[in-house]
């Protein structure tokens, strides 16, 4: 058996292991705990369903309004300092929703300096509350919309940018106003891209745990955690997770359906796009319109976090160093493992004539669509079963019970990250392989028939940019991951995200600022990478 066949065998084995948590969650529906389910139906299940739907649809609606408006303006108008605004509009991608939730809660708290300033300016009594309480469902929707609108912005901008001037000219000749053209031509043509962005926002909203838990909103994510740790019923938590999976799969189906008419047949010779110059009052209006989302979604919370971290926080620097070390170690190790797995799966799919491995990669990519808490439920079910089997073996053969070997270890945490973020790495490695001509492979194999030589001497050097991009994206995603880390971390092992959540939950928002601003700072790295890639494509 040659080396490549061994690689294929390992790929099948690892893929089977990575798919197990999903099947574990889905198959949990066949063993329902009727008493607990009846209790949930009588008390909170309707709230879980209603709030999850409202959160997903509300966040998508808000993100579509912000992202589509800014995308249309940036695609159709030319104005001073436009390049700066293009960068600024993407910055909220670096701000996790749970961090912006902590920040605005502290900023708008009854005893906050902002609250006191407004009362002083308008000579109001100290007992008067002038700022709204955001710790409810509508507040969570606003927080999600502010940090997730760039998904819609990027896709709608590309869609509007691809619409040729001929469409506007036809509308003008037909006597239609600019507003009529927007609603009757531009928006319908960009609808598939807009809905795709909205679907991404919905999946992110359904996956969120930190924001809804902090705001006290009963969604499926919060319900899974509460059922697991509050009621001590992991089986029902898994069944709630399977219901959340159905929500996510429904969103994926709707997103795929929305793209069925995405292909537009436009004459390439007429596919010319020019932008209209804007000056004066129009320039001021456009700047205000496009600056408001990143102002509230990035700059205000970042400034508040910096103020807390630098001037008012009494953070334990030694404790922060340990947190930072744990987080960087875990993120780097996870990035290395996940990218190595992605390389193996992508390489096997490329070198195999059948489509089986390509379909397998598509199945493995489903993990990114699932909430981290759902994956944690599936992973702990698998690891718990494996620990029980190992303990039964050691007791029967050696009269020795080792306890939990896998559960509660770094290994199981890395396993969960691999299930969740393999899709991110796969997308980069598959795109990298797609840019390498098959003729290059044929020529290299003619000179040296070793597939290992082909991979190490030809593919890996050419894939270096894709590998680095994949490692960076996975590194930052793992660094920001909250629910899976919160549930699966080893005892007395904390990361920046978990510690920020713990401090915020204890209402120590100022102390949570240092780990939070560190997460935001590192989160800027993939945003910079995205900006660099967009600039390369535009030149």
TrEMBL record:
Subcellular location: Cell membrane
PROSITE patterns, alphabetized: ABC_TM1 (PS50928)
Name listed for the protein in its UniProt record: Iron(III) ABC transporter permease
Bilayer topology: Multi-pass membrane protein
InterPro entries named in the record: MetI-like, MetI-like_sf
Keyword Nuclease recorded: no
UniProt-listed Pfam families: BPD_transp_1 (PF00528)
Major localisation: membrane
UniProtKB keywords: Cell membrane, Membrane, Transmembrane, Transmembrane helix, Transport
């Amino acid at each position: 058996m040659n080396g490549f066949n061994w690689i294929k065998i390992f790929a099948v084995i690892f893929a089977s292991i990575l798919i197990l948590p999903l099947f574990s969650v889905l198959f949990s529906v066949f063993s329902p705990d009727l008493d607990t389910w009846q209790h949930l139906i009588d008390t909170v299940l309707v709230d879980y369903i209603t709030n999850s739907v409202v959160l997903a649809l509300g966040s998508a609606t808000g993100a579509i309004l912000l992202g589509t408006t800014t995308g249309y303006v940036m695609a159709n108008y030319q104005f001073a300092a436009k390049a700066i605004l293009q960068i600024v509009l993407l910055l909220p991608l670096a701000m996790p929703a749970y961090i912006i939730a902590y920040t605005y809660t502290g900023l708008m708290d009854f005893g906050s300096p902002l609250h006191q300033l407004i009362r002083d300016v308008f000579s109001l009594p100290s007992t008067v509350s002038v700022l709204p309480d955001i710790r409810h469902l509508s507040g969570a929707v606003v927080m999600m919309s502010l940090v997730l609108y760039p998904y819609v912005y990027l896709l709608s901008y590309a869609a509007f940018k691809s619409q040729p001037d001929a469409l506007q000219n036809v509308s003008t000749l037909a006597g239609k106003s600019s507003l009529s053209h927007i609603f009757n031509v531009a928006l319908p043509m960009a609808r598939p891209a807009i809905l795709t962005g909205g679907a991404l926002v919905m999946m992110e909203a359904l996956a969120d745990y930190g924001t809804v838990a902090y705001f006290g909103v009963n969604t499926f994510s919060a319900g899974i955690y509460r059922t697991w740790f509050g009621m001590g019923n992991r089986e029902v938590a898994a069944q709630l997770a399977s219901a959340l999976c159905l929500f996510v799969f429904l969103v994926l189906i709707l997103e795929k359906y929305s793209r069925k008419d995405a292909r537009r047949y436009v004459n390439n010779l007429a596919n010319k796009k020019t932008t209209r110059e804007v000056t004066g009052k129009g320039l001021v209006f456009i700047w205000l319109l496009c600056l408001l989302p990143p102002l509230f979604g990035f700059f205000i919370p970042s400034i508040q976090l910096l103020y807390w971290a630098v001037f008012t926080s009494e953070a334990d620097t030694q404790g922060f160093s340990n947190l930072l070390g744990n987080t960087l170690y875990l993120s780097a190790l996870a990035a290395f493992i996940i990218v190595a797995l992605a390389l193996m799966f992508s390489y096997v799919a490329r070198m195999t004539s059948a489509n089986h491995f390509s379909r397998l990669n598509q199945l493995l990519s489903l993990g990114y669509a699932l909430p981290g808490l759902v994956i944690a439920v599936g992973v702990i079910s698998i690891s718990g079963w494996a620990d029980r089997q190992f303990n039964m073996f050691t007791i029967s053969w050696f009269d020795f019970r080792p306890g939990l070997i896998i559960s509660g270890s770094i290994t199981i945490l890395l396993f969960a990250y691999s299930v969740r973020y393999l899709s991110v790495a796969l997308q980069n490695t598959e795109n990298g392989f797609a840019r390498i001509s098959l003729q290059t492979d044929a020529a290299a194999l003619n000179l040296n028939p070793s597939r290992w030589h082909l991979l190490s001497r030809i593919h890996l050097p050419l894939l270096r940019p894709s590998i680095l991009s994949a490692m960076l994206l996975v590194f930052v995603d793992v660094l920001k991951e909250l629910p899976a880390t919160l549930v699966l971390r080893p005892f007395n092992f904390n990361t920046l995200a978990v510690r920020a959540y713990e401090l915020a939950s204890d209402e120590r928002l100022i102390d949570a600022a240092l780990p939070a601003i560190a997460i935001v700072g590192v989160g800027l790295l993939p945003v910079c990478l995205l900006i660099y890639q967009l600039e390369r494509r535009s030149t």
